[in-house]
Amino acid sequence: xxxxxxxxxxxxxxxxxxxxxxxxxxxxxxxxxxxxxxxxxxxxxxxxxxxxxxxxxxxxxxxxxxxxxxxxxxxxxxxxxxxxxxxxxxxxxxxxxxxxxxxxxxxxxxxxxxxxxxxxxxxxxxxxxxxxxxxxxxx
Length: 139
Hints:
Blueprint: H1 3-28, H2 34-65, H3 75-103, H4 109-132
């Protein structure tokens, strides 16, 4: 298994645990205001689960299982993979921090942080596409 795939899959498992812990905390945080607590943490939980666990697991397994590129002498592709990993996770951390603060009504600076996080996810997704595109071919 390539090192990038190992790191992606391990990070995905860490995000699974983090998302489930966040869901448990959100449910048990304040029984009297459970709906408010759930509404505050639900966007972060969903993003940790789907963008952290599901997406990174898919990217890691795809990088591992897709055929090797025809021209493996392109080391820039591996660098694109690591850069996409870093950008994707930076965007996810920013989103996880900013969403509860925005929902709590802390103002517009957090909306800007969410826009930056969304842009980072777009850049990361483009990087994953560039990394996997040369591996897709017919028989």
